[in-house]
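Ops channel
N.P.: pipeline sanity check, posting one input/output pair.
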C-alpha cells in the first residue's frame, strides 16, 4: 500500500505531464530537428523520442512506444540514424524545448522562484523512480540534468511521464489490449486525441482501426456506436489503478504536502501553456 491515495500521484502526473508533452506540438521542436535534416512529422517524432535509447532499430521503438504500427516505424527507423546521431538529436530537442518555454511561459515565469521550486520538487520525486522493466524511463534517466530551472523541470517532467508510461504499458498488456486496441478504447472516452490524429501519427489505416473497434465490440467493451460500455469503462479504470500502483514510488517519496505543492505549481504552468495554445483543441475528441 502507498502512504496516501494513489489518485494523488495521478493528479500530480496530470499537472506535470503537459510540461513535457507540449513540445510535441511546438514548432520549435520541428524546426530544430528539420535543421538536422529530418523530415517533419513521423521521422522527427520517432527519432526525437527514441534518441535517449541510442541508435536503436525499429523493433525497439515499436516495443517501447507500444501503440505504433511497426510497418510505419520501419519507414523511418533506423533510417533516421543515417541522417544524424542520437546525441545531435538530444541537443536539438533541448534547444527546441527552451524556445518553446520561453515563448509560451515568458522570461519572468522562467526566472521565477516558483519555477526553481517546481524543478527541485519534480527532481526530488524522480529519486524514487525505478529503472527495472522501464526502458524509456531508464534511457532518459541516463541523461544529464540541465542547469536552467525551466529545462530541469522539463527533464524531470519527462522522467516522471516515461516512468508512468512504462508502467502503463505493462498494465495494458495485462489487460490484453494490443497497441491499436488501447488507442481505440482511449479514443472512445472522447477526451483523447482524435481517431484521425491517432491513425495519422501512429501509422494505422482506417481498416485496421475498424478491425480493432470490432474486436473490442466482440469483447463487450464498446457498443455498436463505438462508445464505451460499462465493461470497457471498468477495464480502463482497472488499468489506471494498476498504473497508479506501479507509479506510486515517486509521490510516496515526495510526500503528500510536497506532492500537493508540485501539483499546484506545475498545474499553474500547464494552465498557462494551454492558454497559449500549446495543445490545439482540433486534435482532441472522438472525431
Amino acid at each position: 500500500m502507498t502512504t496516501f491515495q494513489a489518485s494523488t500521484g495521478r493528479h500530480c502526473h496530470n499537472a506535470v505531464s503537459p510540461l513535457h508533452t507540449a513540445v510535441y506540438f511546438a514548432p520549435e521542436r520541428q524546426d530544430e530537428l528539420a535543421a538536422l535534416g529530418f523530415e517533419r512529422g513521423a521521422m522527427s517524432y520517432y527519432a526525437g523520442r527514441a534518441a535517449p535509447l541510442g541508435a536503436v532499430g525499429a523493433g525497439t521503438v515499436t516495443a517501447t512506444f507500444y501503440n505504433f504500427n511497426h510497418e510505419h516505424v520501419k519507414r523511418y527507423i533506423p533510417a533516421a540514424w543515417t541522417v544524424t546521431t542520437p546525441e545531435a538529436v538530444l541537443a536539438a530537442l533541448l534547444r527546441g524545448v527552451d524556445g518553446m518555454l520561453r515563448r509560451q511561459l515568458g522570461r519572468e515565469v522562467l526566472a521565477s522562484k516558483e519555477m526553481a521550486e517546481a524543478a527541485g520538487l519534480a527532481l526530488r520525486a524522480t529519486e524514487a523512480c525505478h529503472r527495472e522493466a522501464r526502458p524509456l524511463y531508464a534511457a532518459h534517466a541516463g541523461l544529464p540534468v540541465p542547469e536552467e530551472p525551466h529545462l530541469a523541470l522539463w527533464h524531470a517532467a519527462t522522467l516522471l511521464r516515461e516512468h508512468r508510461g512504462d508502467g502503463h504499458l505493462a498494465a495494458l498488456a495485462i489487460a490484453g489490449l494490443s497497441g491499436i486496441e488501447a488507442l481505440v478504447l482511449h479514443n472512445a472516452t472522447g477526451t483523447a486525441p482524435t481517431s484521425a490524429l491517432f491513425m495519422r501519427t501512429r501509422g494505422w489505416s482506417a481498416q485496421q482501426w475498424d478491425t480493432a473497434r470490432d474486436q473490442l465490440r466482440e469483447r463487450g467493451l464498446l457498443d455498436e456506436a463505438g462508445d464505451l460500455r460499462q465493461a470497457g469503462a471498468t477495464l480502463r479504470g482497472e488499468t489506471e489503478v494498476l498504473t497508479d500502483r506501479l507509479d506510486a514510488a515517486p509521490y510516496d517519496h515526495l510526500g503528500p504536502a510536497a506532492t500537493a505543492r508540485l501539483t499546484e505549481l506545475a498545474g499553474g504552468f500547464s494552465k498557462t501553456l494551454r492558454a497559449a495554445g500549446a495543445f490545439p483543441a482540433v486534435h482532441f475528441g472522438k472525431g
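N.P.: looks fine end to end. Confidence is low (pLDDT under 50) at residues 1-6.
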